[in-house]
Structure formats: C-alpha cells, structure tokens
Design brief:
The protein is α+β, with helices and mostly antiparallel strands. It has helices spanning 2-19, 64-67, 71-83, 101-119, 124-130, and strands at residues 35-41, 44-52, 57-59, 62-63, 90-97. Strand 3 (57-59) and strand 4 form a beta hairpin. The termini are far apart.
C-alpha cells in the first residue's frame, strides 16, 4: 500500500512537470499605446511615458537640449535605449520634480528603463543585467544636532 502512494506521488510530480507552463509577461500599454513608469534617484521623482515615435524626449514641456545642457546628462538618459538597441524608436514624455539636475537625469533613466520593461518585457534581462531597473537608494545623510554637518564635528579648542 505504501509503495502505491509513492508511485502515485511520482506520477503526480511527473504530470505537473509536463504540464508546467512558462509564465510570460505581457506588455502593459494604455489606450494611446503608451507605457508608464515612475523613476526615482536621490530626491528626484520622474513620471515617464514612452510611446513609439522618432526619438523625441520632452522633459517638463521642454526638449532634452533645453532642459539638460550637459552632454553627460543627455547620455545618461539615453543609456536604456542604447543598451537595448532601441535608439530613435520611442518618444518620451516625462515630468520630473525635486533634486538637482544629476538626480533628475538618473530618475528619468530609471523611469525609462521601467517603462521599456513594461512595453517590451523581453528586454527585462538586458536592463536588469545593466542595473537600470534597480533604484539607487543612496541619499544625502541628514545633519545632526551638535555637529557642523552630518558627521563633521566643530573644531576642538584646548584653550
């Protein structure tokens, strides 16, 4: 009787292994064919929509050239498209608040990566290996009382 139970458990395991279906992610798009994601970096928060287009990037109703003067920040924003070979295939519209320019560029990059993952789920492995889907949680440490800065003490005077 015990051997029949073991055999039946083996049969169940083999049957479930055969009928196991790979779970595939579906792309998430709204009625206009856009994908949305929120990106964060330091104190900056970016709301990002991507849609098929010619590669136009609009940030707070301004073009990328008007908003970010430094070429390094433009390169940071375009990294997700470059690594996935999707340059000039998507239009990006985003609103960004808080932080400085560097943090805002990082937030937009994080948002674009997450939105690309929503639009084309098969790009997830490429974006994940590059580290673009992980939120960089480093933030500025707060100032403590009795200290000049976060950790810096006032100069000690012996006399």
């Amino acid at each position: 009787m015990a051997t029949k139970k073991i055999e039946s458990l083996k049969d169940i395991k083999s049957a479930t292994a055969e009928t196991e279906v790979k779970t595939t992610r579906k792309s998430v798009k709204d009625k206009q064919g856009r994908s949305y994601a929120t990106g964060k970096r330091k104190d900056a928060v970016a709301r990002v929509w991507i849609m098929p287009g010619k590669g136009n990037i609009t940030i707070n109703s301004k073009s990328i050239d008007e908003y970010f003067a430094r070429p390094v920040l433009k390169m940071v924003i375009n990294q997700p498209f470059a690594i996935t070979n999707r340059e000039n295939e998507f239009d990006v519209i985003c609103t960004v608040k808080g932080g400085g320019l560097s943090g805002q560029a990082g937030a937009i990059k994080h948002g674009i990566s997450k939105a690309l993952n929503e639009y084309e789920p098969e790009l997830r492995t490429i974006l994940k290996q590059a580290g673009f889907l992980t939120r960089d949680d480093r933030v500025v440490e707060r100032k403590k009382y009795g200290k000049a800065k976060a950790r810096r003490s006032y100069q000690f005077s012996k006399r």
